[in-house]
Every structure is written in structure tokens, then in C-alpha cells.
Amino acid sequence: MPANDTTLPGAPCWIDLMTSDVEGARAFYAELFGWVPAEPSEEFGGYFMFFSKDGKMIAGGMPKQEAELPDVWTTYLMVADAEKTVAAASAHGGTVLVPPMPVADLGTMAVVTDPAGAVIGLWQQGSHRGFQLLAEPGAPGWFELMSRDFAASVPFYQEVFGWKTKLMGDTDDFRYLVQVDDAGEQYAGIMDASRFLPEGVPSHWGVYIAVEDTDAAVALAEKLGGTIAQPPIDTPYGRLAIAADPFGAAFKLVGPNKEEQATA
């Protein structure tokens, strides 16, 4: 579906990739998802856009500036005022990594960590509104925080980003909350991952890319030099998998469950 032109506080509105191999990453995602990478912009430090085949903006990418940092996908939440939101993040236990920074007339960006240590970007819209395609094969399909401190994460996003929320599960095996709007549409989730994140893996945001066939996407990712952290598995929310590009940036995949594919 087309991206919603929404001003919903805290809704995910953009993702971008920080990579140690720009040309390699551009080739990998072009082959895996059919994305069309634009040329890097010297004006913006080599930043570039990924487009769908029909010219819709999907994501961004940039060269990694510090060698010790991991290759990573960052999710950005929409804010009306980056300065005020960053101040609120600091007041509610967050840490500022990148203070508000205007990006020409495109908008204003910032990056913070939440109280559980997860990195999250902020985007105050200018001429760049964010995604132009969502929840279709080859486009972002869902956004999820895996938190080691669910009790600290939830009020942070409610108070700093204005999230309205709905609890989807409240057991030790499945404690999950989603951001919703007044109509009940869901935009992002927070998982209590304290019981199953591997040792040394911090709280983190992840993006699911929608695909037509999760197994085929996993096979292609491996063929292109990527790695698979979680093989495809059917769930009530689709057939999910976790992968990483050849340079270590992790992403998730979501497609129809096997039963859905069999009856399609």
C-alpha cells in the first residue's frame, strides 16, 4: 500500500543503512529485493536512496564513518519537533547520540538511545516525507523493538513519542505491545525480549521487509553472501526469518505462511 501521509506522533517513517561497503550493499539489496539504488550524494556525505522498481522511495544508505561501529539498519520515528523530542528523551532516561541536525530543506534528524539501550532515529519532516511504499513485497512491512527492559521501554515511547498503545500479550513467553492510532491501526511493536535475546545482544530496533516468499528470499540472501540468524518459521503474523547482509547489517523478512501460499 502507499505510505500513509500521516503526522501520527512516533510512527516509523524511514529506515537507512550504515554500511562498510557501499557498492556491495547496493548490489546485495538490489538483487535481493529489486531495489534501485540512486547515486550517492556528495553534498550529503555519500548518502543515497533506494527506490522500488516503480520509483517509490524505500530506504536510504550511507557509508560507515567509524570503523568500530557495526553495519546497521536504523529506524526513524516521526516527530513534530526534534529539539523538544530530544529534550524529552533525555529527561526520560534516554541518551543523545546525534543532536538535532537540519538536513538542508529535507528535514531535521537526531538519534537517541532509549532507557533499555536501543538506538532509535528521529525525523522531523521537511520536503522529505519518508517512505513512499509500505507493506508490499520489497518494502518495509513492520518495525519492532526487542527490549531487554520492557518496563522501561514502554513508558519511554509513550511519554517521549506520544505513543498510544495496545497490549497484545502479557505472559513471560509473549509480552508484546503495539503502537496504534485512534482507529486501531498498528504501526510498530515492542517485544519483551529479556528471556531470549542471546548474551551480548543489546536491545535493538529491527525492520521487517515484506517478501512474496520468505524461503526463497532466505535462499537468495545466502546465495548473495548473506547469513541467516533465524530460518523461516510460520507464525500468526506471517512466515518470519532473520538475516544479515554480507557486511553484517541485520534485517528481518516477513511473507505469507506456507499454508497461505498453498491455498493462494
From TrEMBL:
Domain VOC, by residue range, is: 11-125, 139-256
Q: Which domain of life is it from?
A: Bacteria
State which residue ranges cross the membrane.
Answer: none
- What CDD domains does the record point to? SgaA_N_like (cd07247)
Under the heading PROSITE patterns, the entry gives: VOC
Q: What is this protein called?
A: VOC domain-containing protein
